[in-house]
Structures are given as structure tokens and as C-alpha cells.
Design brief:
This protein has 425 residues and is an alpha/beta fold. It is built from 17 helices and 17 strands. α4 links the parallel β4 and β5. The longest helix has 24 residues. Bound molecules: nicotinamide-adenine-dinucleotide (NAD).
């Protein structure tokens, strides 16, 4: 850890990258119109005045704009990474140099450093926590319970984090209320689907320069991320195969026009495999055993446990890095299997994560949720809440307005009709 000339505590890779990071933050800001509106309001009304926030999020240009917005709303924000490979080091440097926001995050940090950085963010004595995957909340509830005293509430960004927090609430161990930002319509319908869909394809292509047209692309999981990814892969000309464990989701994939089969069948056919399930060991030894020579395997789910990497390590006679983010495993029978980005979120490891215009909505939900939590925490239980419907709708409305799109309004007659039962044929 170090301090900068401005005495901002931080641990970033290289402060000299700040200039590049600043440009990247500005570029993202241009497509984050809803956040610009919220920021103006926050500057004027200071709804977060003096509130200490510890945020554990992917340190990207879009997140930088959220952190700046919270700071401008009066908050005292520190930021650490929510994944060891997702940090944009130039953005981290600029946040420290240009915005006086302490950041603890270095792309490629090892697991120990990753957790030290979370602990550094917790040392800030947060009143509000913002998490993406619930690692910060988990550490706070296990190793740093002394810091729980001041916490009034939190927010959670992603599906996997919400699942973990609901499990904590069910066990009765969650010590403060948390808003599941992921569950807002204006978050998962757009960020998970269109954001993950596009940026995962981007990550796979940047890492490999592989031609998707004519390839067999296997998507594991047909949830919000999976359906976005499947439709984008099809758009690029791939023949898409979906694997699922949920019969309804599998049926949806069938009727959306995809081939659906078990992973053991798909494993023999696929050229590219991408897991987006939020589950563990989705691609395992039995699948690696039958994969084609040259198969590419990647993950875009939250944790790097969707691909059973320890088995792959055991099965391989050797491995080498053939390109940035491409590790070639040589199997004993001579086949090669290419693992991308250490099995971590490929859209953030080898690409830049979601485009700013979709993060605009997710982070508008975050900003509104923090403001809501500050105002309402006293009457909330120690459990997981959804984003209040009126805030969710406000984000959609503001986004449409920022796109210059007008929609119709219900007439009083229509409102009455929709609210009644008396009128029939
Ligand atoms: N890469 C990113 O930037 C990004 C963005 C948002 C969410 N995520 C993460 O992606 C993961 C998926 O999120 P989501 O919102 O799509 O979740 P979701 O719950 O909507 O979908 C997950 C799907 O995976 C299926 N599944 C579970 N186990 C499976 C298995 N063994 N084989 C095949 N399918 C299986 C489930 O039935 C479900 O349909 C989560 O870990 C989430 O946190 C990543």
C-alpha cells in the first residue's frame, strides 16, 4: 500500500497510467447520460453527505463514473476490485490522481493481494457496502466483524452475489439490509443480456482472433447472460448449442431456435465453449476427455469455478501461454485445449467489460439504491430487498428520455379499463 502526493491511500499498478485512464473515464461518461443526470442532482442535493462507502466492484471506466457520482453526492468512497483480473490499471490510477478516490486494485493480482485489497477497503469503516459477487460482505461477516457496527446497508450488483446474500439471509447471519441491484428489470434484462452477450464475444475474439462464422459455439446456461451470449454468437454466424439444467430454460432455448443437448454430447462437437451459469464444475474431466483438438474454453460467469481447472491441470502433460489470455493445455493423447483468461470473467479479463451505455442503467440503479438505503435503512430488516419498483421505472424512463424516445401514456379511460373487471365482450 502507498500514499500519493495528495495522501490518498491506494494500491494501484502504476500512477503514470492516470492520463490514459482519465481519457477512458471521460469516454465512458459520454455514453452514461442517466448517470450524468443523477450526478447533477447529487451535486446539488448532497444526498450522501459524509456517508462512508466501501465499494468492491470491477474497476473499469464505467465504475469510475459511478464512484465519481457518489463522491459528488457527498460520499467518502473507496474502491477495491471484485475480481483479480478485471481491473483497468489506468482507470485505477486516474481515480486516485484526478479524483482523490482511494483504489486498491491491480490487474492480475494474486488471491492473497485480492483479499488484502478487500480488507483495505473494509478498513474505511463503511456505512454502506457495494459489492459485486458478495466477497466484501462475506469477509466483513467472517473476518472483520468488528467493522459491522457502523454499516447501515449495502447493494449487490450481480446474480451470484444475490444468491450468496439470500443464502446468508436464510441462515439468519446477514447483519444489515442489502438491495439486490441485479434483480431490477433495468439491470439484468439489459446488463446481463446485452452487456454480457456483446462483451463476452468481444473478450473471446480479442483473446483468440477466432472466426465465429461457421463455428460450433456452446453456451452453458440459458439465463439472462446465456441468452444474450447465444443470440450474439448466432448473430456472428456461429451454430449455437445450449446446455441447461432447468427444463423451462432449455425449452425456451429450443423455441428460440438453438440446439439443446447435454454437455457430454456438446463436448464432442464444440469449437468454442463458454460457461455462464453461476454454478461450479460445469465443464469437467469427462468433457475435456472428448473435446476436439484446438477447443477453446472460456467462462463469463462470476467465479472461476465453472471450469474444473484443477482437473485440466492434472490431465495435461504440459501447458504454455500462446497469446495473452490464452493458455494451451497439451493432453497426453496429443490434443490441445485452450483455456482463456484463467477461467475468469472473459469479458473483463481480455476485453473491457460491458459497454458504458448499458452500465449507465445498472449504475443508475446502484446510485438510486444507495440514496434509498441512506434515507430508509432504519425501517429495513436484515435481509435482501429488490430495488423499489418506482426507482427501477425511473431508470427506464430516464434512459428512454436520454435516447430521445417518447412513448405513449395510458389515457384515463384505459387506466380505468385495466383496473376494472366489469367490462367484457
Ligand atoms: N461476465 C459478466 O460481466 C457478468 C455480468 C452479469 C452476471 N454475470 C454472472 O454470470 C452468471 C450467470 O448470471 P445470469 O444472470 O445469467 O444467471 P441466471 O440465473 O439468469 O442464469 C443461470 C442459468 O444457468 C443454468 N445452470 C445452472 N447450472 C447449470 C449447469 N450445470 N449446466 C447448464 N446450465 C446451468 C441455470 O438453470 C440458469 O438458467 C452469474 O455468475 C452472474 O453473477 C457475469
Amino acid at each position: 500500500m502507498s500514499t500519493t502526493p495528495m495522501q490518498v491511500r491506494c494500491d494501484v499498478k502504476n500512477p503514470d497510467l492516470a492520463e490514459l485512464g482519465k481519457k477512458r473515464i471521460d469516454w465512458a461518461n459520454q455514453s452514461m447520460n442517466v448517470m450524468q443526470i443523477i450526478r447533477k442532482d447529487f451535486i446539488k442535493n448532497q444526498p450522501l453527505k459524509g456517508v462512508r462507502i466501501s465499494a468492491c466492484l470491477h474497476v473499469t471506466a464505467e465504475t469510475a463514473n459511478l464512484a465519481i457520482c457518489l463522491r459528488d453526492g457527498g460520499a467518502d468512497v473507496v474502491l477495491c476490485a471484485s475480481n483479480p483480473l478485471s481491473t483497468q490499471d489506468d482507470v485505477a490510477a486516474s481515480l486516485v490522481r484526478d479524483y482523490n478516490i482511494p483504489v486498491f486494485a491491480i490487474k492480475g493480482e494474486d488471491n492473497d493481494t485480492y483479499y488484502q485489497h478487500i480488507l483495505a477497503a473494509i478498513d474505511h469503516r463503511p456505512q454502506i457496502t457495494m459489492d459485486d459477487g458478495a466477497d466484501l460482505v462475506s469477509i466483513l461477516h467472517t473476518k472483520r466483524t468488528d467493522m459491522l457496527e457502523d454499516v447501515i446497508g449495502g447493494t449487490e450488483e450481480t446474480t451470484t452475489g444475490v444468491i450468496r446474500l439470500r443464502a446468508m439471509a436464510k441462515e439468519g447471519v446477514l447483519r444489515y439490509p442489502i438491495i439486490a441491484v441485479n434483480d431490477a428489470d433495468t439491470k439484468h434484462l439489459f446488463d446481463n443480456r446485452y452487456g454480457t452477450g456483446q462483451s463476452t464475444i468481444d473478450g473471446i475474439i480479442r483473446a483468440t482472433n477466432f472466426l465465429l462464422a461457421g463455428s460450433k459455439f456452446v453456451v452453458a446456461g440459458y439465463g439472462w447472460c446465456g441468452r444474450g451470449l447465444a443470440s450474439r454468437a448466432r448473430g456472428a454466424g456461429a451454430e449455437v448449442i445450449v446446455t441447461e439444467v432447468d427444463p423451462t430454460k432449455a425449452l425456451e432455448a429450443v423455441m428460440d431456435g438453438f440446439r439443446v443437448m447435454s454437455m457430454i454430447e456438446a463436448a464432442r462437437m464444440g469449437d468454442v465453449f463458454c460457461t455462464v451459469t453461476g454454478n461450479k464444475n460445469v465443464l469437467t474431466k469427462e468433457h475435456f476427455e472428448v473435446m476436439k483438438n484446438g477447443a477453446i474454453i472460456a467462462n463469463s460467469g462470476h467465479f472461476n469455478v465453472e471450469i474444473d481447472i484443477p482437473s485440466l491441470e492434472k490431465m495435461a502433460s504440459s501447458k504454455r501461454m500462446t497469446r495473452n489470455f490464452v493458455e494451451e493445455y497439451s493432453m497426453r493423447d496429443g490434443r490441445k485445449i485452450n483455456l482463456l483468461g484463467e477461467g475468469r470473467l472473459i469479458n473483463l479479463a481480455s476485453a473491457e467489460g460491458h459497454p458504458p451505455s448499458v452500465m449507465d442503467m445498472s449504475f443508475a440503479d446502484q446510485a438510486f439504491s444507495v440514496e434509498y438505503m441512506v434515507k430508509n435503512h432504519a425501517r429495513l430488516e436484515k435481509t435482501v430487498y429488490t430495488v423499489p419498483a418506482e426507482l427501477d421505472k425511473r431508470v427506464a424512463k430516464l434512459k428512454l428520455e436520454s435516447m430521445g424516445i417518447k412513448i405513449d401514456r395510458l389515457t384515463p379511460e384505459q387506466e380505468e379499463y385495466l383496473g376494472g373487471w366489469a367490462e367484457g365482450t
